[in-house]
Amino acid sequence: MGRTILITLIAVLSAQGRTSAQNFAGQYTFQDTQGTTSMSVQQDDSGRISGSVTMDDGSVVNLQGEIKGTEAIGIATIGEKNTLFKLHFQGEQLIYTMIAVTADNKPDLANAQQFPFSRTGGGKGGTGPAASGGANPLAGGGGGGSTDPLARTFTDGKMTLQLQGRGGRYQGQIQFQGQTFPATAQSPDGRSLTGKFTSGSDSFDFTGKLQGSTLSFTTGGTSYQLRGEGGTPTAAANPLSGDSGSSATPARGGQRPQPIAGGNVVNDPSMGVRFSVPPGWKHQKQQTIYMMGHDTIPGMILIMPHTSNSIQELAAAANEPLYQAQDGQLMVTSAPVTLTNNMLAADYGGNIQGKEAKGRIVGVVSPHGGGFLIMAGADTAGYSPQHAQLAEGIARSMNFTKPQLPPEAAMWKQKLTGMRVKSFKHGGSSDAGGAYSWSDERDIDLCSDGAFQSTGGFQGSLGTAGGSAIMNPGNRTRTGQWTIIGQAGQPALQLRHSTGNVETFVLSANGSQTLLDGVRWYVIENPTCR
C-alpha cells in the first residue's frame, strides 16, 4: 500500500510568495476519544523546520520541511512510509495537513486530511489567515464524551455532518452522495450554527439549529433534519456470533477474534489466514482475492492482501484511493477507527460505472507481516449497516499462521542474493504558475549473509512567482537483514531494519522485468557485498 512520496511536489501546494517567516516552533497536542497526539516543531533562521508527531500508541512520525510565507511544507515519515504535510495556523490552532500523492505524481489536495493541534509550549504562532476548514480525520466528527452538543456527528442516512471543536468554533466535513466537503462553523450560544463549506474553489453558506438531538441544517433553501450521534463509525457486532443486532464499542487493543459460528470456514495455509464466511454468502478465490456474494443481499464483499506491517502504516495509507480506474474511484470517507491493536475500520464511497457506491473497509494486520483488507459495500440504494457488520465480523473471525513459502521463493532467493535492486524515477512540470522537477533514486544491496544496505534519496527544485526553493534532504543509509517470505500466497522481499522498521515488497515478473509491489526495479551487480 506504500508509495514513495516526492517532496518536490510541494511546488503545487505553495501558492504564496515569501513574506516574513511564521513562527511554528513549539509543543502542540491534539486530543480525541482515542487518546492524545503530541507534536514538537523546531525552526531555524534559514526557514527550515524539523520535528515529530507522537501518536497515542507511541509511534512517531518524523517531519522535515521548510517555511513558505505563512505555511510550512515538507515530508512526514513513519517507518519507511512517507507523505506530504503542510502546517498553517487557523486562529490559535496549528493545522497539520497530511496529503497523499496521486498515481500521476500530483498532490491529492481534494482528499487531504487535517489535524487541529493546540499549543502547549514554545513560541507564539500568531493567528494567520482564516482557512477554509477541512475534514478532521482524527476526531471523526468530535463527540466521544465532549459536553459540547454540537461537537459530534449528525446524519439522516443520506447526508452526514461531522463537527469538532470547542468554544463556539468548529471545523469538520459534510458527506453527501459519496463526496466530502470541508466545513467550518461558529455558534454564539451552543445551539445555533452559521458556517461555510467548500466544493472545489467555491464556498457555500449554511445554518443550523439544534433542538434536542436533532439539528435542522439549511443551505441554499434546502433543509435537512439530522440526528445527532457519535462522531466515529460505530464498531459493528460480529454477525457470525449470532448476535448481529447488537452494537459493540470500538476496542482499544488486544481483543481476540470472535468464535466462528455458522457459515463456512476458509483455511488458506498459502496465505496464512483462516476466516469464516457469513451464512448464506457464496465465495470464490481469484488469484489472491476472495470475492463473496449473496442471492438476496445486494453488493459484495472482497478480501485482499496488503503489505502494511502496522495499523499506523494502514492509517497513513487511508487517504490514497482504494480503487482508481477509468470506470470510477473509491476513497476512504471517514476517519479510521481503531477496533483492536491490529485492526482499523473506516467508511468508503465513490462512483463505479456511473453508480454511487459506499461501504465499510476493515484492515487487519497479521503478526507475521502484512495482512488483509475486507471491503463490504453496494450502490447507495442497496447499502445498509449490515454491510459494515459483515466486514467487521469477518475481520474479527480471522486467525493467522505463518504463510507457506510459495514455490517461486527459492528462485527469487537465488536471483537476488548478492545483487543490487535499484529504482530510479524522475519527472517535472511547468505552467504559468511555476515549475517543479524531481528525481527519486534508491539502491538496496542484498548480501549473501542475509544483511542489506539501502541508500537513496530524492531531490528537486520548485519555482513560483514568489520565488524558488530546492529540497534535498540528502541520501539516507539504512541497514538490516533481508529474507524471502510468503506474503498472502506470493513471494515477497522483506527488509528488517536495524531500527525495528519492516518493509515488505511483493515480488513478481513481467517478462524479463523484475517488479517490487508492481513497480519495475533493476537487478544489477552489487558493488558493496556478495
Question: Briefly, what is this?
Answer:
With 530 residues, the protein is mainly beta. It has helices spanning 311-316, 385-396, 409-416, and strands spanning 26-32, 35-43, 48-54, 60-68, 71-78, 81-90, 93-99, 113-121, 153-155, 159-166, 169-176, 179-186, 192-199, 202-211, 214-219, 222-229, 265-268, 273-276, 281-286, 289-294, 300-306, 323-325, 328-332, 337-340, 343-352, 355-365, 371-379, 399-400, 419-431, 434-446, 451-464, 467-471, 476-487, 490-497, 502-510, 513-516, 519-525.
Radius of gyration: 24 Å
CATH topological fold name of the largest domain: Protein Transport Mog1p, Chain A
pLDDT averaged over residues: 76
CATH superfamily of the largest domain: Mog1/PsbP, alpha/beta/alpha sandwich
Briefly, what CATH class of the largest domain?
Answer: Alpha Beta
What is the annotated CATH architecture of the largest domain? 3-Layer(aba) Sandwich
Q: What structural class should be given to the helix and strand makeup?
A: mainly beta
Helical residues, percent: under 10%
Care to describe what's here?
With 530 residues, this protein is mainly β. The chain has four domains: 7-121, Lipocalin; 153-229; 239-400, Protein Transport Mog1p, Chain A, CATH 3.40.1000.10; 409-525, Lipocalin (Beta Barrel). 5% of the residues lie in helices and 53% in strands. It is built from three helices and 37 strands. It is globular. The model is unreliable at 1-20, 125-146, 231-260 and 462-470 (pLDDT under 50).
